[in-house]
Amino acid sequence: MSDHKTMTINLVVWRQKNANDTGKFENYTVKGITEHHSFLEMLDVLNEDLIKAGKQPVAFDHDCREGICGMCSQVINGMPHGGQERTTVCQLHMRKFHDGDTIYIEPWRARAFPIVKDLVVDREALDKIIQAGGYTSCHTGGVPDGNAILIPKPAADEAMDAAECIGCGACVAGCPNGAAMLFTGAKVSQFAVLPQGKAEAKTRVTNMVQAMKDCGFGNCTNHYECMAACPKGINVKFIARMNREYLKAQF
Amino acid sequence: MEFLNTSIGRKIVMAVTGLSMVLFAVVHLIGNSTIFVGPSGINAYAEHLHSMPLPIIMLFRAIMLALFVVHIVYAIQLTIENRGGRPTDYAVKATRKATFASENMIWTGLLLLAFVVYHLLHFTFRATPGLTLVNDAAGHFNVFAMVASSFSSIAGAGIYAVAMVVLFLHLYHGIQSLFQTFGLANGNTLPTITKAGALVALVLFVGFLAIPMSILFGIIKG
Fold first, then answer.
1. All structural domains of chain A
2. ipTM of the predicted structure?
3. What pLDDT digit, counting tens, does each position of A192-206 carry?
4. Second label for A25, Cα 20 to 30 Å away, from A57, A215, B58, B156?
C-alpha cells in the first residue's frame, strides 16, 4: 500500500453472549486502519487482534460484501448502515471517518429481531412476512412466451424500484416503532403493479399485513426514518401503495 | 372485525377521525371569524347555531364526541404498541426524517384533549370564573361580551395561544400523515402534500390566534 497514513479508531461495540444475556458495551481501540478499509474489514482487523489476545471476536453478519445480499446489519453512530446514502455497511469505507473518531456499533434493535449474539440478530420475521404472501402462484410447465403478457414500461420500472429491496431490515432498525412497513410495502408493491400479481392481490396484502402484526412489528407513524435508513433508497410511496392496496382489499 | 385489529386498519381509523376533526376546525375558524365583524357578527352566528333543532345539535355533538374518543383511544393503544416495537433504544440517537412534531404526537394530542376540556368548560358550559354573562339589546345571549371578558387578560389569551402552538405541531405532522395513510401520496406528491399540510396548519394557527390577540390588544372592540 502506497500511503502511510493510518488511523486509530475507538470503538464502542455491543457485546451480548446470547438472546438471554443482558449485554453491554465494550470499548476497543483499532490501529493501522487505512482509508481503503471497508467498515467490515476494520472489524476484521479488530477481530484478528481479539483472537490473538485470546478473546472472543465480535460476531457480525456479512456475506457478499458488495452491497447486494442484505446480510450486514449494524447501527453505526445511531444510523443503520452508518447513514451514508444508499450504502450498506460493507460498502461503507473508513475514509468517511477520521483518525481518533469514536464509533458506536449496535445491533438492529426491534422486538421482532431478537439478538442472536453481539451484532447478529434473527431476521426470520421478514421471511414469515414473505411466506404469508410475497409470491405469485403459477402452474409449472412450458416456459411462457417472453411477450405473452405485455407490461407497460412505467409499471415494470415501478416494480423494479420496489424489488430493489434486499431485505436487510434497516427500515425496521431505523423505525422508532420497529415497524416493517417499508419492507412489506416494497414486497406488496412489486407484485401489485404487475399483471402476474393482480390475481392474488387481495389475499397477499391482507395476509402480509396480518403477518407483520403476528411477528411483533410496531405500527407506522409516518416518521419516514425507514426511507433514510434504506441502503437501496426504497421510497415511502410503496407504504402508501400498500395502504391503498389494503383499503382496496376490504371491498 | 379484522380490519380494526391490524396496523393499517387502525391507522385508517386514526386518519378518518383526524381528518373529520381538521375539517371541523376549519369550519369552526370560519364561523369564529364573524367576530371580526364586531359583536353583532359573532352574536348573530351563535344565535343561528343555537336556533337549529335540538336533535340536530345533539347529534352533531355526539358525532364529534365519538370521533374524539375513537381517535384518542386508538392513539393511546397504538402508542403503547409502538413503544414496545423497539424495547431498547439506541445509545446514539440520530434520527434524520422524524420531526419534533412527529415524535410527540401523543403528547401534543393529550395536551389538545386537556385544552378541549377547558375550552368546553369555558365557552360551552360557561363554568369558568370571571365570565361576563349578559344578554344583548335584542335579548339574545351576548357571546361577544363573554369572549371579550375572557381574552382581555394576558392569562386568558395566553392559554389559547399556547394551545394553538400545540395544535399547529399536531397538524403539521397529522395532515400529511393522513394522506400517506389513505394511500393518496406518492413519491412526487408527498413533498407538496407535506408543505400544503404545514400551510393549512399555519393558517389555522394564525386564524385562531388572531381572535384572542385582537381582543387582548384592543383591535376588536365591543
1. 7-116 (3.10.20.30), 123-137+149-248 (1.10.1060.10)
2. 0.94
3. 999 999 999 999 999
4. A215
